[in-house]
Specification:
Strand content: under 5%
Number of helices: 18
Order of helices and strands: EHHEEHHHHHHHHHHHEHHHHH
Distance between the termini: 21 Å
Largest sheet: 2 strands, parallel
Radius of gyration: 22 Å
Helix content: 55-70%
Number of strands: 4
Length: about 450
């Protein structure tokens, strides 16, 4: 008599497939380097903006370059926010599409938890911000500032404090940040477009369609693709929609899987992964650090100026949203998912680990600063920068304390994961855990 196989109880924060874990590990290494450069750019900007040479920093940030005839004679700070960050969002678009087409997120059950956590991590900070700033005229337009997680900044912190952080937690943090980026893109497109010019927006569809047609035919020639991408970006910029949205749309246009003529999905990485390898170093190593340099420079006015800044409810609302709202939203959504699905945390992990990771997700920098400038303008975003920097540093310190206390446990899990890897090519635990795999 054949007995039915025992049903496996659903698990939160499972390690996932080995190929996906290996790919994400490579991404994390690049983003960690980018995070270090981001921090360096932010620190240099803060020191310069609070030095006797602050005027030189402001002159550099406000220096206008670009063709006036095309309405692209913009300050360098705007070029960094609208231009360089389009590269960042192009890579985000590639990563988002790949995760949902070929990554672990194509499995609805596996995707449900980080998606729910990301949404909780957007809703709770926004509600806390609105609660703190209620009754303050004009403050409501900044509700989205504390909703974003800066993956590069967070991974730079992890590189220092969490060298042995389990693969499941790293993967969860990256996945949450990827979904977070998608939500941020939608928020920017829907809520921070003041004046819409339909003609340039419709005209942008032409280069976007040509770009899509070429990449769908697996064309990689930069001299064909780059002019189309730049044209699409310029037209979206002229339409009034934030130009970074063009980067996302271009990323979504790139195919993830190989064509049947090229051997299909089993033949190796597709064009999206090829572009990601090319552009991620540019995004993490240049685009985001330069944006941080031009955005983080704010004159604090000494200790008294810092105290005055926190008399502003907007500053308090942003800081509370990042430090308290993020963990409340992420922890709450994850706990609800565990209740509804009757899932337990993976072996060796506890809710303390989720708390530390949720607080770490309160590091909001790149997109938070961008939304701050969109909400209050470059001139009016000084207090926003103070709030984002203070909230992010506080979240980093709190997460450091919690995750360091668990370092011995993480080291033990890391040793087990390393032992699982078979260098002789025999399927390891990641492979055998998959349905249909050998031993699965």
């Amino acid at each position: 008599m054949t007995h039915p196989a025992p049903s496996r109880k659903p698990t939160l924060l499972s390690r996932g497939s080995w190929p996906e874990a290996r790919r994400i590990g490579a991404i994390l290494r690049k983003e960690t380097v980018g995070g270090a450069l981001l921090l360096a750019g932010a620190v240099v900007a803060m020191i310069w903006a609070n030095s006797p040479w602050a005027g030189a920093y402001e002159s550099l940030r406000d220096l206008r370059v670009g063709p006036e005839a095309l309405h692209l004679n913009l300050p360098l700070g705007t070029w960094a926010a609208d231009g360089l960050l389009a590269v960042f969002f192009f890579v985000a678009g590639l990563e988002l599409k790949r995760e949902f087409v070929a990554g672990d997120l194509r499995d609805v059950r596996r995707a449900a938890v980080p998606i729910a956590a990301a949404l909780g991590g957007v809703i709770a900070p926004a509600l806390l911000y609105l609660l703190v700033t209620r009754g303050v005229e004009g403050a409501g337009k900044g509700w989205a500032i504390p909703t974003a997680t800066d993956i590069a900044f967070a991974l730079a912190v992890l590189a220092v404090i969490g060298r042995f952080l389990p693969t499941a937690l790293r993967t969860f943090l990256l996945t949450l940040a990827v979904v977070d980026d998608l939500v941020a893109i939608v928020i920017i497109a829907l809520f921070y477009t003041d004046h819409l010019a339909p003609v340039p927006l419709l005209a942008a569809l032409v280069p976007l369609a040509l770009f899509t047609a070429l990449v769908q035919r697996r064309v990689r020639s930069w001299w064909l693709l780059l002019p189309l991408a730049v044209t699409a970006w310029a037209l979206v910029h002229a339409s009034g929609v934030h130009a970074t949205v063009a980067g996302v749309l271009l990323g979504f246009a790139v195919p993830v899987l190989r064509s049947d003529k090229a051997g299909g999905p089993e033949a190796g990485p597709g064009l999206a992964e090829h572009f990601e390898h090319r552009f991620r170093p540019l995004s993490a190593g240049v685009a985001v650090p330069v944006f941080a340099f031009f955005s983080a420079g704010v004159s604090l006015g000494g200790p008294a100026g810092l105290v005055d800044a926190f008399a502003d409810p907007v500053v308090v609302g942003i800081a509370v949203g990042l430090v308290a709202g993020k963990p409340i939203g992420i922890m709450g959504a994850t706990w609800l998912m565990s209740r509804f699905t009757h899932a337990d945390l993976d072996e060796g992990l506890s809710w303390v680990d989720m708390l530390g990771l949720s607080i770490l997700a309160g590091i909001g920098f790149t997109v938070s600063l961008l939304i701050g400038e969109l909400a209050f303008g470059i001139e009016g975003a000084g207090h926003v920068k103070v709030a984002v920097l203070t909230g992010s540093v506080t979240a980093a310190l709190l997460a450091t304390v919690i995750l360091r206390l668990r370092n011995r446990v993480y080291r033990r899990i890391h040793e087990m994961e390393t032992a699982d890897l078979d260098h002789d090519g025999v399927p390891d635990v990641y492979e055998t855990d998959r349905p249909g795999a050998v031993g699965g």
